[in-house]
Design brief:
The chain is α+β, with helices and mostly antiparallel strands and about 350 residues long. The chain has two domains: about 120 residues, Creatine Amidinohydrolase, Chain A, domain 1 (3-Layer(aba) Sandwich); about 220 residues, Creatine Amidinohydrolase, CATH 3.90.230.10.
Length: about 350
């Protein structure tokens, strides 16, 4: 993991701050490499200190790059306050979107001489623009998920419960080297597919069903995220038409996706395709989201956001329709990297409707 502390230091000028306190663990990992579950990173203009507890003494010394490692015995903030790093600091940024009211009260109690500056999304845009080694990790994670999907296709047939398929998805990710799942798999058959975030149930696959399968794993810290929809037996005309519309919406979005567009502009490209066939009202979520050390990161691709999409961001393109009256749902999801004038698709799994 690269030492990205210089990039955090550059941000201090924007905040008119002497230092930044990073507490969101994915951001801590991004900045200095620590992969454990407890730590604080204080980044000053010329130095940095990382504080964790005794469980991570050796791990932190092996992983943390660019910051002094300090081990706390009685709480991270207490230990941090005892250090002399704060002696010359007057204004310190903290991640307001990751700090509870109780933690903020602790900051003020332990370090009352500091002016604490709350910032949401303090390093979000820095994290969003992926370096090429990060892109390769996401590409690898996506390849693992694609291989799981190929395996799962062999298990999809009438009479198999959704829960069994979800369990097999998890097992196969771990068996292929994933550290853990990006999220609990979604396996939604027939009318359950009309729920965008359906949970696997005891319902068994039936002939004529469309089955929405959304899954991803964490490999070397980075997430995959892929959705495919397949048919068990001969699907209805309505569901086939819905599938074709979603596929066309995604293909159109992939054709125009690039850095510099706003999230709203790219979302509208896919939404317009669905509107022309009368299915836009069934597209109930945004077109996509960032992916990296977390499976849901900034930026968002949605009709409600105006921010520009940064170059190097890895994002999902995942239009869907969910039609309860016709008893089906469809979603197709790829991960792409946004380049200056185009996008690179990291997902290779086929998208023609597979009828099993």
């Amino acid at each position: 993991m690269a030492n990205r502390l210089p990039r955090v230091r550059e941000r201090l000028q924007d905040f008119d701050a002497d230092a930044a306190l990073l507490s969101a663990l994915p951001n801590v990992r991004w900045a200095c490499g620590f992969t454990g579950s407890n730590g604080l990173l204080l980044v000053g203009k010329s130095n940095a200190v990382f504080v964790t507890d005794g469980r991570y003494t050796e791990q932190a010394r092996q992983e943390v790059d660019g910051a002094e490692v300090v081990i706390a015995e009685n709480g991270l903030l207490t230990r941090l306050a005892d250090l002399d790093y704060f002696d010359d600091l007057r204004r310190v940024v903290f991640q307001a979107d990751h700090v509870t009211v109780a933690r903020f009260d602790q900051l003020k109690d332990h370090l009352s001489q500091i002016t604490w500056i709350p910032k949401t999304a303090a390093v979000t845009d820095l994290v969003a623009s992926k370096e090429e080694n990060e892109v390769e990790r996401i590409r690898h994670a996506q390849q693992v998920t694609e291989s799981v999907f190929d395996h799962i296709l062999e298990h999809l047939e009438p009479g198999v419960p959704e829960r069994d398929i979800a369990a097999e998805i998890t097992y196969q990710h771990l068996r292929r080297g994933a550290d853990k799942m990006s999220f609990d798999p979604i396996v939604a058959s027939g009318p359950n597919g009309a729920l965008p975030h359906a949970r696997p149930t005891d319902r068994t696959l039936q002939s004529g069903d469309l089955v929405v399968i959304d899954m991803g794993g964490i490999c070397d810290g980075y997430a995959s995220d892929m959705t495919r929809t397949v048919a068990i037996g001969s699907p209805s005309e309505a569901s086939k038409n819905g599938y074709q519309a979603v596929r066309e919406a995604q293909e159109r979005a992939l054709e125009v996706a690039r850095a510099g567009l706003t999230g709203k502009e790219l979302d509208a490209v896919a939404r317009d395709v669905l509107e022309k066939v009368g299915l836009d009202e069934y597209f109930s979520h945004g077109l996509g989201h960032g992916v990296g050390l977390e499976v849901h990161e900034w930026p968002r691709i949605s009709r409600t956001v105006d921010h520009e999409l940064p170059e190097g961001a890895c994002v999902t393109i995942e239009p869907g329709v969910y039609v309860p009256d016709d008893g089906y749902g469809v979603r197709i999801e790829d991960i792409v990297v946004l380049r200056e004038d185009t996008c690179e698709n990291l997902t290779r799994a086929p998208k023609e409707l597979q009828i099993l």
